[in-house]
Amino acid sequence: MNIRQAYAQCEAVTAHHSKTFYRAFSVLPLHDRNAIWAIYAFCRRVDDIVDEGKQPHQQLRQFEKQWESFLGGYTENDFMWVALRDVFSRYDMDAEPFSHMIEGQKMDLTVHRYDTFSQLLRYCYCVASTVGLMLLPILAPHRREQLKESAIALGEAMQLTNILRDVGEDMARGRIYLPREWMSVYGVSEQDIAFGRVTNAFIDLWEHIAQKAEEKYTYAEAAFSLYPLSARFAVRGATLMYKSILHVVREQQYDVFAKRAFVSEERKKALLQQIGGENVEVG
């Protein structure tokens, strides 16, 4: 398989599975966005093993072996690995976040409840903050250390947003990510979640976690000016579109059980136009 075909398949995976991510990063130069698609395909592959695999434990072990072989210099004739090899040859990539991503997906196979918020944040780091760390060598190669904490906070914020949006879907898979310590404080039981009860207590719990997510968005955004302009547009676009999910849930009266909150194409377009105007002023 040639590299052009490999990247094209990675792009197709990204466009199909995450329109928000794809829309935000399509503004990058060709080589950079190809690298982004390859990284997304890696993350998608391991995530799908856990959520949709018929034998997820076995498949994840096999994927981890493939990753170890990749690090050893072997590249399978599979579009994702072929594209990722090209990424590692073009950019000064750090393997650690990729390994931590696999670690986070392992957690989903064995951990279905989180007692504390700090435990949940570790999970958020592994499955989401790692993505930001993977992208830094591409988006801001000369500012990686300065942007590291911002990338980690942004990943945590985005994963908390996912958790708040997907309470019902996660429950259907037997998972509750809402920290038990806070469920207890607000008086929300697992039975409430299982039966999809949107009570005042649930709304208060939801908003408490949403506030934590929004604080992390704010912390992350404080460093966005360190990104080169095209990358700044992409990161800011992805951030605004993700933050909007929280607003959509509120508009839907916090029903995260019967409805899936998504940002409309009209709203996405308006957000990107807003950022475009800001970047013109910066430039």
Commentary on this structure:
This protein is mostly helical. It has two domains: 1-110, Farnesyl Diphosphate Synthase (Orthogonal Bundle), CATH 1.10.600; 145-173 and 183-283, Farnesyl Diphosphate Synthase (Orthogonal Bundle), CATH 1.10.600. The protein has helices at residues 3-17, 19-25, 30-52, 56-71, 79-90, 96-110, 117-139, 144-165, 167-172, 180-186, 190-194, 200-221, 229-251, 265-282. It is globular, with a radius of gyration of 19 Å. The termini are far apart.
Topology (SSEs and partners):
Elements (H helix, E strand, L loop, with lengths): L2 H15 L1 H7 L4 H23 L3 H16 L7 H12 L5 H15 L6 H23 L4 H22 L1 H6 L7 H7 L3 H5 L5 H22 L7 H23 L13 H18 L1
Helix pairs in contact: 1-2, 1-3, 1-5, 2-13, 3-4, 3-5, 3-6, 3-7, 4-6, 6-7, 7-8, 8-12, 8-13, 12-13, 13-14
InterPro entries: Isoprenoid_synthase_dom_sf, Squ/phyt_synthse, Squalene/phytoene_synthase_CS, Trans_IPPS_bact-type, Trans_IPPS_HH
GO molecular function: geranylgeranyl diphosphate synthase activity; squalene synthase [NAD(P)H] activity
Pathway: Carotenoid biosynthesis
Kindly list the characteristics that best describe this protein.
single chain, Farnesyl Diphosphate Synthase, disordered C terminus, mainly alpha, geranylgeranyl diphosphate synthase activity, Trans_IPPS_bact-type, 14 helices, Squalene/phytoene_synthase_CS, 283 residues, EC 2.5.1.32, membrane, 2 domains
Coarse morphology: globular
The count of domains is 2
Q: Count the strands?
A: 0
Under the CATH scheme, the architecture of the largest domain is: Orthogonal Bundle
Q: How many angstroms separate the termini?
A: 40 Å
> Strand fraction band?
under 5%
Mean pLDDT: 93
Total of DSSP H or I helical runs spanning 4+ residues: 14
- Order of H and E elements: HHHHHHHHHHHHHH
What structural class do helix, strand and pairing data support?
mainly alpha
- State the share of residues found in helices, binned by percent: over 70%
- The CATH homologous superfamily of the largest domain is termed Farnesyl Diphosphate Synthase
